[in-house]
Amino acid sequence: MYRMALPSWSDISAYLSEYWSVIAATVIFALVGGVTIYYTINQLNKNISLSLMKAIRARAKKYKKLKDKVPAASHIWRKELGSRSKGLKCCVCLKSVSPPQYLGGTIHECDICGATAHPSCSGNAHKDCKCVSMVGLDLGPLKRLILSPLCVKELHRTGATGLFSSITSGANELASTVRETIRIRSKRYKKDIGPSQPESPGTAEPQSDTDGDSEGSNTTAKRDDHVNGKLHEVHQSTESEKDKQFIADNATSRPNGQHEMSHAQNNQKYEIVDVPSDSRPLLVFINKRSGAQSGDSLRQRLQILLNPLQVFELGKHQGPEVGLSLFRKVPHFKILVCGGDGTAGWVLDAIEKQKFEAPPPVAILPAGTGNDLARVLSWGGGLGVVEKRGGLFSVLKDVEHAAVTVLDRWKITIKDNQGKLMCSPKFMNNYFGVGCDAKVALDIHNLREENPERFYSQFMNKVLYAKEGAKNIMDNMFYYFPWEVKLEIDGSNIEIPQDAEGILVANIRSYMGGVDLWKNEDSVSDTFQPQSMHDKTLEVVSFTGMLHLGRLQVGLSRAQRLAQGHHIKIEITTPMPIQVDGEPWSQEPCTIEVSHHAQAFMLKRVSEEPISHAASIMADILENAENSGTISASQKSALLQEIASRLL
Questions:
Q1: pLDDT band at 298, cuts 50/70/90?
Q2: Is 614 in contact with 647 (CB distance < 8 Å)?
């Protein structure tokens, strides 16, 4: 009877199992519900953030006048490791960007203002970069050089062009996302199948400050930039003679110059309006192939010091025409070229094609190997000098107070024995060589194409140059040079010395990285005039061989003066190496004529001499006179040329 009153063990077990099942189901339901609620709240928060951004944009459209004064400034995104993002938040969804979703993940950080965003959110970021934050504020000590954001107006294109642009932008964004996913998976796959070399994010700091246009480097950081909402991948690039040839090809006369100008204007996104009369905005061109891959570092620093719209990179798909087209209506602006002599010549050619009534003056930030043109304009022989003078800020101050001078530009035509042109005319700014010096330049050119990894520093360039020169000393291939070349200057035949193995036609007082061939101090003892880069006169000297060139570089010898003149004619009877501003090639028998082409306005760094300060002040006075209508732009240009010829 007692046992019947007590429940059986099986009943108790069934009851307990049912009880725990209910508890487990309740716990699971609570967890799932909590996760669902948490996820829903996060999504709502993100949607609310995006809705607020859209509402702000919609409200901003109602105030077109304000939008004209305060332009939208797109962030310039670069990739950074997620491990560096501790404590940072996304500027779009307002969520923390750390830790990343996966090991080794990246975030997007703006090059200009430092804003951060998730890679998936950066495309939706509002265009509120540095420029907007500058509105109404003092632009600082460089305010005359900085383009105020109040002067920049965003162009709105409608119709089929706008629709096509929107479709293209969306397709590019989708394609960039797909590429990023594939790249990440590829990285994971490489880690799974074996070791790989680590990839350094961001911008690699240059190892050398004084490497140049003709200089190669085989090591550079790969970098992805999310520029104006689009992700651009910049592949590994090496400075080679092919790059120099590319610059030279772009610097020569091209028949479609007007087409390129109109194309740049059609693709223009912004317009510069209402620039103050006392403003002198600086337009910057950077050749990232110059300076041992220091182009990325220069671009970032200049974008911080100036308005990002003032800084343009030169490449195979973008020449100086884009920046010149944007600044075409700016009354008084200056240009800074960050590169070597080849880059400077490229920009000067582009300025000439624009046909400015008063062409802008050009300063040079020396990033080449020789930097001969930068040397004669007192900007120095390399980036190392820039750092010694106080960095880029001091350089920009020097550009603001620089004196305007002029540079003669010369046209070189090459004709065959029948008088027909063998190629398009070339334009010379520095010098033109025939014979032994061109032979070494050509050998270095060929060696660089075969082994670009050997040209990784300026010092190694000089070592290889000396090595090739030593080889040519033993060859003695220019023994008959005086009988294979005929020289005529201003209609008079000039006798070439019998021991000569090369001649050089010089426009400036710097050769091979600072060698003064003409030696103006020697002009007192003979009938020759001092050398000047704006007297429309060329100087011709001869070399006795490679050993003579080596002694010239160390200051143990002097070049032999031959003549001065305005029109030079050289007849070559056998194949001969030739170089124009460092661009070498092997030339078949021909007749070469050098004649004055034009004069370009350049900026010379002001020294401590009172004359230099006077020239700088007079340039400002002439610009103010043009603003007031006292003189015209053409009259100002003529007066600047006269001042430069008399004072500088």
A1: confident
A2: yes
- Look up residue 144 and give its two tokens: 């005359």
Residue 330 in contact with residue 275, Cβ under 8 Å?
yes
pLDDT of residue 537: 94
Q: Are residues 435 and 560 in the same domain?
A: yes
pLDDT by residue (tens digit) across 176-207? 554 555 555 555 544 444 443 333 333 333 33
Residue with token string 């006795």 = 544
Contact call for residues 552 and 541 (beta carbons, < 8 A): no
Give the distance from CA 423 to its chain's centroid.
28
* Sign of the four-CA dihedral 182, 184, 187, 188: negative
Phi, psi (deg, nearest 5) at residue 480: -100, 20
CA–CA separation, 69 and 132 (whole Å): 10
Say how many C-beta atoms besides its own lie within 10 A of residue 217's C-beta.
Answer: 24
pLDDT at 412: 96
Same domain, 486 and 551: yes
- For 39, the token pair is 């996820």
- Beta strand extents in 463-533 (DSSP E only): 485-489, 492-494, 502-506
CA–CA separation, 288 and 278 (whole Å): 31
Cα distances (angstroms) measured from residue 79 to each of 74, 108, 552: 16, 5, 48
Q: Which of 554, 203, 552, 216 is nearest to 368 (CA)?
A: 216
Whole-number Å distance between alpha carbons of 147 and 145: 7
Residue 478: give the domain boundaries: 412-598
Instruction: For residue 425, say if its preceding peptide bond is cis, omega within 30 degrees of 0.
Output: no
Give the number of domains in the chain.
4
Largest CA distance in the chain: 145
Residue 486 shares a structural domain with residue 621? no
Q: Which residues contact 496 (CB under 8 A, 6 or more apart)?
A: 481, 482, 485, 487, 503, 542, 562
Q: For residues 143, 149, 153 and 154, what is the CA-based torsion angle, rounded to 10 degrees?
A: 130
* Alpha carbon 146 to chain centroid, angstroms: 18
Tell which of 192, 213, 232 closes a domain. 192
DSSP strand pairing (106-110 vs 76-81): antiparallel
In degrees and rounded to multiples of 5, residue 289 shows phi and psi of -80, -15
| H or E element, residue 415 | strand 403-415
What 3-state DSSP class applies to 489? Answer: strand
Give me the half-sphere count of Cα atoms (radius 13 Å) on the Cβ side of residue 135: 17
DSSP 444-479: HHHHHHH-GGG--SHHHHHHHHHHHHHHHHHH-TTT
155: left (phi over 0), alpha (psi -120 to 50) or beta: beta
Residues 97/117, Cβ–Cβ less than 8 Å? yes
Q: Are both 417 and 465 inside the same structural domain?
A: yes
